[in-house]
Write a structure and sequence with these properties.
mainly alpha
C-alpha cells in the first residue's frame, strides 16, 4: 500500500508539530527552573540586605540607649557635687568619657557599615552573576 502525498504531508506536519510542542515544553521547563533558581537567589540577597539593615538599626538603637543612660549617670554624679570645683571636675570627666565613648561607637558603626556593605555587595554580585548565567542559556 502506498501513501498518498497528502498523507505524507500530514504526517510530516504532525511530526513537526509534535517536535515543536516537545521543544516548547523543554524550553518552558528550563525557563521555569531558571526562574525558580533566580527567585531563590534574589530572596537570599534580600535576606542578606535585610539582616544588614537590622544589624545597623539595632546597633544605632543600642548606642542611643547606652548614651542616654550615660548622660543620666553623668548628670546624677554632677548633681552630687559638693561645690563648684567638684562639679567642674565631674563635668570634665563626663565630657572626656563621652568623647572616648563616641569615638569607639563611631569606629564600631563604621566597621559594621563596612561589613554590611561588603556582605550586601557580595550577595548582589552573586545574584547578578547567576542572573547573567541563567539569562544566557
Amino acid at each position: 500500500m502506498t501513501t498518498k502525498p497528502a498523507e505524507k504531508v500530514e504526517a510530516q506536519i504532525a511530526a513537526a508539530t509534535s517536535e515543536s510542542i516537545e521543544k516548547g515544553k523543554e524550553y518552558f521547563s528550563k525557563t521555569l527552573s531558571a526562574s525558580e533558581e533566580l527567585t531563590k537567589t534574589y530572596m537570599d540577597f534580600a535576606r542578606v540586605a535585610a539582616a544588614g539593615v537590622e544589624a545597623l538599626g539595632k546597633k544605632a538603637y543600642d548606642t542611643a540607649v547606652a548614651n542616654a543612660y550615660a548622660m543620666f549617670d553623668g548628670s546624677k554624679k554632677a548633681m552630687s557635687a559638693k561645690d563648684a570645683m567638684e562639679f567642674s571636675k565631674i563635668a570634665q570627666d563626663n565630657a572626656k568619657l563621652a568623647a572616648q565613648t563616641a569615638a569607639a561607637q563611631m569606629k564600631d558603626m563604621a566597621e559594621l557599615y563596612t561589613n554590611v556593605f561588603k556582605n550586601t555587595y557580595d550577595a548582589g554580585k552573586i545574584a547578578a552573576q547567576k542572573s547573567a548565567d541563567k539569562l544566557s542559556m
